[in-house]
Write a structure and sequence with these properties.
Elements (H helix, E strand, L loop, with lengths): L1 H17 L8 H12 L11 H18 L1 E4 L3 E4 L4
Antiparallel strand pairs: 1-2
């Protein structure tokens, strides 16, 4: 009986986790996701030194945490909740 209850509890937890929409992320998660993209330093050009790239990405992360939008020079900004 106890195993059935535990199994049902685990199944219920899995269903509630998978039922959460994929777009439902916090601002911190959103900004960190785009920050990880930025720190690859692919979009800033080959001539930009890595330390300058990381500095630029750090400023963008800080701004994103305040505004909810992560700015990319080539493609514009990505904002949380935007489609």
């Amino acid at each position: 009986m106890k195993k059935v209850f535990v199994g049902a509890l685990i199944l219920g937890a899995l269903v509630s986790v998978t039922a959460t929409p994929a777009f439902a992320e916090t601002r911190g998660q959103f900004c960190n996701r785009w920050h990880n993209v930025c720190t690859r330093c692919e979009g800033l050009g080959a001539r930009v030194p890595r330390h300058e790239c990381l500095s630029t990405c750090g400023v963008r992360l800080s701004s994103c945490q305040q505004t909810g939008c992560y700015y990319f020079r080539a493609t514009g900004e990505r904002c949380i909740g935007a489609k």
